[in-house]
């Protein structure tokens, strides 16, 4: 029987994204989204809003159990505490290094172009912000007083800490705990299947998320802040295509071309959800199935990176600081720039990868160098769109560092990495229920039932 080639999920997601941009732009340009209009009530704030939020909830729903079980498996897979420490320190060092380079690049580019000089802008809105937690609190709160609460709140660092400690303890118990390891492995496999189920609706979800964002934002705001947007986008692209790719090639020898082709899925999800945390399931799946990174490394580096590594966000801090300083005519000394770099790196460690957290970090940076906090109001109008872009860069940074660490630990299957079709699945394959497995399960259940 002749079989037509099915479109891969990645392809469908990209089609969803393109259609979302077209529909969103059409709604915006034809001004169909005015308050109280049919399109506004039933489509943009109705169907698009509800379906989009449902999808983001579904992604977030996966994060805690996925991180918990895959980290236990990861720790048991690594098998000894020394290697674990090495993997931890390598990824931490690389995350900090890439973030510091990112912000230095942003400051250089913004200063060289002199954005904001001689510009008279009025704040687009009043801005008040939460404060990012001080570093002392971040350190203390790595250890949860109640792991269940940390899980319920989705607090990533305490969750990572508790899961690693569980994994280490299971290892220390040894043979007696083997069924526990097996259980964690099975639970991890079940979670990965759940990721597949959620991902199967991704093309539609990406469509509604993008269409809603573009319908609401349009592109005209971008024009008003053209200088800021241009420098920011150039710095983001430079970092993604040059800094990260040179780092990848230099430290691992892996092909940047293949990396860029394969990371697209995770980038689209990061772009659509504006959240590195919500993208964790997709980043993990991409690294493990498409790039051949062993779960023992990815399970650790991905959630860790989503929390502490924010290259794109750091770039925004750098560009925004120079921009606002120029607008208000504040002269920043070289020491101020160093403070900006340090603050951004520290702030990215202490804040989670959720939408708009970059603004919170920015207020912290501004307070340190004495820039008026209300200056943030100036860039607020374009921030939603910029958040989408920088989150895609954040996630790419997480994936690049994960690949480097995995390669250096001999935990990257190069044949999977180099195979362009590895891990590509059509939706039918993704949702395939294995009948043999089903029958086996039924037989086992029957046997257990008879025995009892
Ligand atoms: N939304 C970003 C993230 O989740 C953080 C930010 O820049 O606001 O990675």
TrEMBL record:
Keywords: Cell membrane, Membrane, Symport, Transmembrane, Transmembrane helix, Transport. One of its GO terms (biological process) is dicarboxylic acid transport. Gene3D superfamilies: Sodium:dicarboxylate symporter. GO terms for molecular function: symporter activity. One of its GO terms (cellular component) is plasma membrane. It is a multi-pass membrane protein. It is found in: Cell membrane. It holds the Pfam family SDF. InterPro entries: Na-dicarboxylate_symporter, Na:dicarbo_symporter_sf. The chain crosses the membrane at residues 12-35, 55-80, 92-115, 156-174, 195-215, 227-248, 334-354, 360-382. Its main location: membrane. This is Dicarboxylate/amino acid:cation symporter.
